[in-house]
Amino acid sequence: MRFSKLTVPFNRLAILAAALMILPVAVACDTPSDEVSEAPTEMPDAPVSGTEATDGTIVDVAVDSGSFSTLIAAVQAAGLEEALSSEGPFTVFAPTDEAFDALPPGALDELLLPENKGALTQVLAYHVVPGAITSDQIQTGTVTSIEESDLDLVADDMGVTVNGANVVSPDMVTSNGVIHAIDAVLLPPSLTGAPPAEEMPGEVAPPVEGVPPVEEMPGEVAPPVEAIPPAGAPE
Questions:
Q1: pLDDT in tens, 111-153
Q2: Within a domain: residue 220?
Q3: Does residue 222 lie within any of the structural domains?
Q4: Structural domain count of the chain
Q5: Which long-range contacts (CB under 8 A, 24 or more apart) does 59-68 make?
Q6: Displacement of CA 37 from its chain's centroid (Å)
Q7: Which of 36, 83, 205, 210 has its CA 20 to 30 A from that of 177?
């Protein structure tokens, strides 16, 4: 299965998105906003030299690490094992098991339901960036995920954050990319945006008592104008 941008009807995911929105995803950084570069981070096509890659793929390394059991279960439920085992390369900001445990009660179970597979795929794809990059290459700025929404990266003396989530274990270099463990689950904007205008609820103003609709308003209809004969024609 290849990654692709998915659209999920808002009304089917409103409850799930509302639950997930309480996650701590605000950027927590002491750097003033006017000092943050807005230039997108360039993602290299391969890991930097000097960082030895393992023989396993992203999925293999995630399984072997023992820290991503819930993430692997979600990847399997979404049918993304093949995609994350393909040539890539990919950079994965991978939530740890503790990050998933911090979700609101029932949120993960809801997300893993078969009818929410599309939403699950969007959430997982939001954690994946094309190309391979190690932590020393990350620059403050934005980068576009496979889900096609931007991630906000901050790199400073305190470390690296992604949408406010901390990179707690960086640089697990695999045969097809890099894994950076993070301490929170990220939620794409596509699941938190307002519904389309045509779906917004609203009240229709009641008619004013005693005033009929326009089409029923009484009034005189002007008689048709008789045809005016051409100039010079007899009356």
A1: 999 999 999 999 999 999 999 999 999 999 999 999 999 999 9
A2: no
A3: no
A4: 1
A5: 59/84, 59/85, 60/85, 60/174, 61/172, 61/174, 61/179, 62/92, 62/94, 62/179, 65/172, 65/179, 67/96, 67/97, 67/169, 67/181, 68/94, 68/95, 68/96, 68/97, 68/181
A6: 22
A7: 36
